[in-house]
Fold these 3 entries.
Entry 1:
Amino acid sequence: MKITFLLTWADVLGGTERAVFTQAAQLAAAHDVEIISVFKTGERPFFTIEPRVTLRYLVDRSGSGPESPVSPTGLSPAECAALAALPTEFTAPAWERAIFTRLSDLELGLLLPAIDCDLLVTTTPALTSAAVRLTRPEVLTVHHEHRMAGIPPLPSAPQLDALVTVNERSRAQYEQALGDAAPLLATIPNSLPVAHRPRSTLTGKTVVIAGRLAAEKRVDHAIRAFAKASSEHPDWVLSIFGDGPERSALHALAGELGVSDRVRFHGSSPHMSQEWAKADIALLTSRAESFGLVILEALAAGVPVVSYDCPNGPSEIIRHGVDGWLVPTGDVDAIGAVLAGLMGDRAALRALGTHTVAGAERFCAERVTERWENLFAELEARRGDFARRRHRAERMVCRSALDS
């Protein structure tokens, strides 16, 4: 089977991008796999691409000049700039309308009607809107939802062959929202890339949080909680991995709280498996997480995870009191108390650590790939069936009726 993943951009450090590169590498052992990135934003992808996976781009945004098609074009630079200044015509939520343009519409409009694949996997609402509108009927279309909590606008869902979420709670939300207009719904979690992962000895005094330094990650909560906990344990440090718009404010906050000597900013690292092996506690304070690959990375390194019980992913990965601790979301005092308790009780910390690797193995590559293969087989069996097209048309009518 030829499988194509459609990404907004392949060059950035992000959870969706990491998941797609991992899925593509795992599937390439048995399939012809390609990743198409709408935008090229750098010289090379942040994540290493499996040699058997093809990567190509549609629109170049990597230079200082106006964006332009990667393929040869008859458009002048002025015409490219004019199209890039116009918003997309595909159905998209506000956050995507700030990304996609009439120029990217043009390139998707050239790509999708002629795309040479059996199955197309989209990763955002805008890309799904383009895919269901433009791809040939014989191409199986799957949307893999990587977004955060709740269900983002997905009016194109009834036209899909399948909608896959990374957590069960999101699948149930889509089932309720779409009703009879829902395509095949499935939950397939993300998995860790197959790699050697060193283990932490849990003999140090380091708390690690990793992620984009943006408001939704609430790293300020992590600093405040750590400040409370480390007042009793001043020899512990908080190591922060990631970059983003909140970095300066977070530096200032650490100073205000008097812990700037114990809070260390390391920027983004392509070698997080080694960094997790130096950690003793992993921390997650996000407002929402669709899944939480950093949780798996920490568990695989033998590091217990303390996390807000935010929607939707952490509670489906962390086994409370077994390999980590779930705290009511937004409760800085509570998360600080849990941190302080583990900092002061090495036996309790190690007890959690004995179960972490087994927790991560529930999401190993072999198990997750098997679920994808089962889904593909089910969809492939329906490809030539007239009932497939009829059911899709009926779902669209149901959706229209529900919206009227």
Note: The mean pLDDT is 91.
Entry 2:
Amino acid sequence: MSTTPDPGELPGRADPDVLVVGAGVAGLFCAWFLRRAGLTVTVVDRGEVGDPAACSSGNTGFVGTQGAAPLAEPGVPAKGLRWLLNPESPFHVRPRLDRELLAWLWHFRRYCTERHARAGFEVLLDLKQRSLAVLREVCAQDELAGTLTVRGMLLACKTPEGYAQARATVPAAVARGVPLRTLAPGELARLAPGVEFAVAGALLNEEGAALRIPAFLLAFARLLRAAGVEILTGTEVRGFEVADRRVRAVRTSRGDLRPAEVVIAAGVWSVACARELDVGLMLQPAKGYAVTVAAGPGAPTLPVLLSEGKVAVMPLGDRIRLGGTLELSGLDSAVSPRRVEGILRTVRSYLPGLDTGGRVEVWSGLRPCTPDSLPLIGRVGSYRNVSVATGHGHIGMGLAPAGGRLLAQLVTGEPPDVPLATFAVDRYRRGHR
């Protein structure tokens, strides 16, 4: 990284109370709550809001209370070799000698227990419930009207075994306030007329919700700017000036900024940013894919999660977005035709009447994943004025709103909604949970 700032537009500006690095969904919600707390906020990002290269831009947008299970589940290690050797599997690890990957996988395996999975589910569900409340409030404003739909979500189970496992979760989910119920075949047909399902059964989450992406991000950025948040795109962080355990200046490609607080919320790029401060983050980039096709006859009008296949189906008017897979392949964002075909094959097996031939777009993005699927929200290292908000993983849209509120509570000294130790950056080293 360069230590000499390029001449640009930043010198001479008033320095903000808080500088947020990253204009994805995590960074924008940090900025939203920090601004609501009365602080001046600047957001910087090397790309554009909703940029196709960003993790948030090709997301299926699933939010609400469905899909709160962590990636680390008891049966995952037994599937490891089979998934490792199958380039079309839902969770694929590209073999390579990488110390950080090996450390991540070691911790991941530790969390593949019933106890950890149950505890992780409780935390993630709570965050998703809090996030949905935030999204309902934010999207009630005219600027974001129509970017959030809360019409329910289907969980389609291909096999009788999968359906039995899904049904077994209903009592506990209902006890936690999730409006989840089983659907008889006739009910599924009435709920999705004209859609052919080849499944053993389905559940309906009446609280299932989804954001229209990237429309939501673009509208939210406009709302933030109107509220006084400065968003500087095309601005790369190049280093830090540090003294007395504080970041005194942030060097960017457009000049220096001297904020009182720094928040690193740059998704997978948070690792490189934190490394400039000699801080390690237990994060791995998990590549996900989205295939957008024309929505012809037989396309569902409700969001559908294909349970065993780990594929999300998101209706977008005259298009439908199909998202899935998690591939630990480093910072490689290249599209694998075999992975794409694996998604389409899975969709056709559940929805045989859906025509997936009219492709509009194929996208891949890198999601910041932690071994236990819980985000990193907290102070970093021994610095007095540096925090992170990252690691929201494959359900980032459904976690980032509540995560942004927690981060703002940390920075302002307000009592947090939930204990921040759960999301501590150093919890893996300390053996937390």
Note: The longest strand covers residues 284-294.
Entry 3:
Amino acid sequence: MNRPIRVLLQTTIPSSDDDWHIGRFSLLRDFLAGETDKSGSPMFEVTARDRDEVGRPDQVLSALDTSKFDELWLFAVDTGNGLTGADCQAISRFRRRGGGLFVTRDHMDLGCSVCTLEGVGLAHYFHSKNREPDPSRQSADDTGSPSILWPNYHSGANGDFQHIDASEPLHPVMADPDAPGGAIQFFPAHPHEGAVGQPEHEASARVVAKGHSKLSGRAFNLVVAFEASSHGGPAIAQSTFHHFADYNWDPSLGAPSFVTDVPGDGMAHSLEARRSIRQYVRNVALWLARRPINN
């Protein structure tokens, strides 16, 4: 019997009731913690936490490379100061020693502290740092929220779902044997997603899923996967943490007071969309630990 995969779910902000603290990802945490293998044994041992105070190395992140964690799911919900240099260096060493790394952020410059992470940091494009290489994409997609600047791809309302396109060849994290065509079909939607892409000269990375703006119709990247290589363990760059937030899986659970977008109810009425995102989460958690996905 394999031991449980040790997963760290971590935000880049200190605990704050009126923000995207780790408690707002409780459905994700509970889903992973409740997954069992064919023998009924837990598949994942989940630790969920917010960072320590801003401006000082986080006691866990700054020593991640010496920890027993197998993978880090980093929710970059900060406005630019969420990771110290010591944190980024330890996270990079963690991946170099073979650890799995999942990094997600949101629109504009939200989460731009991830830019200095080796490899996967360069897969994240922001407004004032590491901009999308295509100048035509340096403009607003979501025009309904003028205070939120690009990148801000509009995939739908919080609480609704979006149809996604898995890239060929199908990547293991996008596999869904119970869906038509055998691929993940749906992600939760968000009115202003961030931007990700394959970093230049990064042969181990490729875009594995795309979405489409409901305002402009433009395709945009949702997921970039980095294969394990001599540079380190497997990694994922994801366009927005809203694909995993309680509010996007079930808006009745609430959001911080600064969220003013009117939510939808598509997820509540689609068992298939709810199953799809959970299948994706399971896939990613197993793939990052280099475990078989179909067990």
Note: The first strand starts at residue 5 and ends at 11.
